[in-house]
TrEMBL record:
Species per Swiss-Prot/TrEMBL record: [Bacteroides] pectinophilus ATCC 43243
Chain segments annotated as transmembrane: 249-267, 279-308, 320-348
Entry-linked PANTHER family: GLYCOSYL TRANSFERASE, GLYCOSYLTRANSFERASE
Coiled-coil annotated residue ranges, if any: none
Domain Glycosyltransferase 2-like span(s) in chain numbering: 9-181
Protein name: Glycosyltransferase 2-like domain-containing protein
Classification via InterPro entries: Glyco_trans_2-like (IPR001173), Nucleotide-diphossugar_trans (IPR029044)
Keywords linked to the UniProt accession: Membrane, Transmembrane, Transmembrane helix
Length: 354
């Protein structure tokens, strides 16, 4: 590695992650980067399980790191947790790693190599993985990993070397946060979108390095996945009222789909009740049929694409439900966005008061 080795902070924030936390901590312990040049900051967000105890045991058993700091995040949210870490970290750069993540042994090394090439912010691909290898979980993974089921974010697609708008696991030089400040604690779910927007606005570039890879565990059941999508959509709507510039058009596609269902459903009901054979009623019926036909055709096509491009061992019988899973994910996200827009005026008033 040479004589001059960058001193790096690796940060993990967790709330009730006693199942997945030992895995990511084991990965951190197994990094091939010089441990004496790594500071580990573990942030417990007022967990009610053994999360904090696991962190403390890791600190006690891993004395080869420069330091292992276990701190509290009493406000519990992710942006508040990151700000707690930013207040106390000592590294020349800080590397954010999610508690649901897995990282290969050269993860830190590759991030440092990219930073030492002159970049201020670096990150790479972040595919999804599952906890338990069952046919149903493999289908959930396929739905979450599909562009149709998730998003077109570059960290999901690996576009090759590029400068991008946002990242998931990323390393930031100290001067980045010194210049723009910390995370917006008034936001949830969208704090990364907002801070990456501020970074770009301040002149920093987010370098996507295809050699860097990490993995993210998907939610372990369909209800948990739908809850996550609903929350994501909800915060997209709220963030629209305070920082629309940090969002992209694709964030609103599920909302547009849900609104089309609602509007066409209402229009069809009214026209059928008033003049069932009128031109207006026939027009609404045709438009509705075209919308549903196009959606299900695309859902089936994307499901087939997901299955065909998957490895043979990843395919299973529940894959036939992929079009239905796509629909549920889209509706859940869209309904969350709708609920967020309903709540938006009150949120903006409260946001301005704080």
């Amino acid at each position: 590695m040479g004589i001059n080795i960058m001193f790096l902070t690796v940060c993990v924030i967790a709330y009730n992650e006693e199942k997945t936390l030992p895995l990511i901590l084991a990965d951190i312990s197994g990094q091939d980067y010089e441990h004496s040049s790594i500071e580990v900051v573990l942030v417990d967000s007022a967990s009610t399980d053994s999360t904090k105890k696991i962190m403390q045991e890791f600190a006690a058993c891993n004395k080869d790191f420069a330091a292992v700091k276990v701190i509290d995040n009493p406000k519990r949210t992710l942006p508040c947790g990151w700000n707690e870490a930013l207040r106390i970290y000592s590294g020349e750069a800080i590397l954010k790693v999610d508690a649901h993540a897995r990282i290969p042994k050269d993860f830190v090394t590759k991030n440092v190599n990219a930073l030492e090439r002159g970049e201020d912010i670096v990150g790479g691909e972040r595919p999804n993985v599952i906890d338990d290898d069952t046919p149903w979980n493999r289908t959930l993974l396929m739905a979450e990993s599909s562009m149709f089921g998730s998003s077109i974010a570059p960290y999901r697609r690996n576009p090759g070397p590029a400068y991008v708008k946002s990242m998931f696991h990323a390393a930031y030089r100290r001067r980045v946060f010194d210049k723009i400040g910390g995370f917006n604690e008034k936001l949830g779910r969208t704090e990364d979108n907002e801070i990456h927007y501020r970074m770009r606005k301040a002149g920093f570039r987010l370098c996507f390095d295809p050699d860097i890879i990490s993995y993210q565990h998907i939610r372990s059941s369909l209800p948990k996945m739908l809850k996550q999508k609903y929350s994501n959509g909800y915060w997209i709507a709220l963030t629209t009222g305070v920082c629309p510039e940090c969002l992209s058009l694709y964030h609103y596609v599920p909302f547009a789909f849900v609104m089309a269902i609602i509007v066409l459903g209402i229009a069809r009901t009214l026209t059928q009740c008033i003049e069932p054979l009128s031109a207006a009623a026939m027009g609404v019926t045709v438009i509705t049929a075209i919308m549903w036909g196009a959606y299900w055709l695309l859902a089936v096509a994307m499901a087939v694409l997901a299955v065909v491009t998957a490895k043979p061992e990843q395919r299973s019988l529940p894959d036939i439900l992929l079009p239905v899973l796509f629909f549920l994910l889209h509706v859940s996200y869209g309904l969350g966005t709708l609920a967020g827009f309903v709540q938006l005026p009150a949120f903006v008033r409260q946001y301005k008061k704080q």
